[in-house]
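step: validate -> pass
step: tokenize input -> pass
step: predict -> running
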Amino acid sequence: MRRALAVLSVPMVAAAAYAGPPVAEHVAAALQAELQPRAVTTHQLIQYMATRAAPLPAPKVEADWSRDAGRLRRHVLDEIVFHGWPREWVTAPPAVEELGVVMTSSRYRIRKLRYEIVPGMLAPAIVCEPVSRTRPAPAVLNVVGHEDGGKGILHAQQRCVAFAKLGIIALTPTGPASAELAHPQNAHDFAAHLEAAGAHALGLFYLAMRRSLDHLAQLPSVDRRRIGVTGLSGGGWQSVVLGALDERVAVVAEVAGVGSLDTTLTHPSETDEIEENATDLGRTLDYPQLIAMRAPRPTLLIHNANDECCFRAGRVKPYIHDAVKPFFALYGKAGNLAWHENVDPGTHNYERDNRRAAYRFFAQHFGLRAPDDALAIGEPGADAAALTVGVPRDNLTILGVAKALAARARRAPSADRVLERARLTDVVRYHPSRVTRAWPLWSARADTADTLSYRLDLDSALGATAVWFRPQTPRTDAPVTIVLHDDGRAAAADLVAEALTRGGQVVAVNLIFFGDMVPEQPASPGAELGVDPTVRPHKTGANYQMLLSMLGERGLGIQASQLLAVARWARTMAGGNNGVRVETRGLRSQLVALVAAALEPRALAAVTSRQAIASLRHLLDAPVPYRAAPELFCLDLYKDFDVDRLTALAEPTSIHREGG
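step: predict -> pass
step: emit ->
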């Protein structure tokens, strides 16, 4: 197993925040030093995750792959997508409110409707349909990504109208966070709050897609054998996911929506949404497998040569097209997996060239006449106000759905401690680890304490950094104190100084995703698309924590494992007779220490947490932004445990909490 260097670190708090003992200059200096470059941590994480990605299986024979694809489809839907979602919500029939025709021409008309995603959450949509038809027509779900305009954005309008001119019925829904659903609590990061409430984040987005597909499929005017999906960016992602998991989707045209883990691990900001990095999905399959699951149904992948956002053509084609082509060949339909690379303009777009390719593909596989190239030019588009549908004032947001789910949850009574600990082990995906080597980096001597800084190798291949403070005359009966701070070791000077006054040895630690153990923040691909970079704090490694969860790991479980490994190492370094206590500041480090104590209750003598929370319900009530504390949005943690049950599970460890 590959070994990685680990760094322990604790952040420093402003002097005004704590009126404790004066901080010696050398203590502060030792805590401020960077012990591991962020590039090293980034490389360790990429290597760690690469070994956990599900490889694309070798294609066998048609019957075998059809059977395997069906099994994968059932597993993903039952065990991942709908994890924690009320059964009656998942199986409810479509609830649609038709709101009439708003625009008519000689060739098409546009009507408005609202449909229910889950109880209390409605989504608006428009339907473009040909005026004259003599038999059931093909249909396309024309999904939209993260753009603010939703169904009213020009390229989505142009596609909707063009499909109607081709004789296709097109439905364009508005997804969460755009247009009429552009509420602050519909930001996609609030999908994490669904997982805090015990429901898989992907479930809500999948239900939003499937509900609109359900409506199309039940229309008497639609030929159910000829239904397609298309969209750009997040809409391209929806096209692949729905197209793979719902066999009603006959034809897909994806535009710049997916890559593979081979490309994402080095560009984690490309899949910078929780639903795209779907928890546990990567344990089973990756996006190339989802595309392969469409075989032999016609699938067009459109990617842009110089995309400023994501999934550039030259980088992703070998993984999502070339490697998947053999699965379509099993059925004698290799040509049904098609590729189009856009060069003009080559940016993140669904403009004329890409529309032309999509229209031709749908027409070919729906058995329609070939479209005129002029169709791709598109009409000017209606004023967005004319397409406004309206939603109720009390329409639930994503956060509102999370709170509704939390209110429904009923935690099971306390069980046998062994069984509860086994359940906690599974929820946080805990794997014990140990320090395999401590690399001394530098030392210093001062009147108050000797200092020695370490970079630590752990057998998990993810490391930590630490600074050890040893008083000149340490008390032999005093426990070793491990200090953790949400902002990293550099912010923990006051906690270290206070602990040193008690005469014991102190170790200030940075676990993975704290302080100098935070990986490099990848450049945001949305910078040129108007995304405000200040709304996403970058000091917690949220992009990488998403990917870890996708691959079946949990940041919280890794951090708890590291803390316990460091505690064992510290006890040995101190002579083996000293106990180990932990002091934390902030909710992130509080939960890391509390979960560690609950997993191995005799490993730590005591845990004292400042600026602590009394319940994980705080994540929903505050609400806490996902990227401020990503590891706490661990699927099922709040639903099954919460702070009170973790505290009970940690006995005999003494747990002391001071609110903040």
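step: describe -> The longest helix spans residues 62-81.
step: cleanup -> pass
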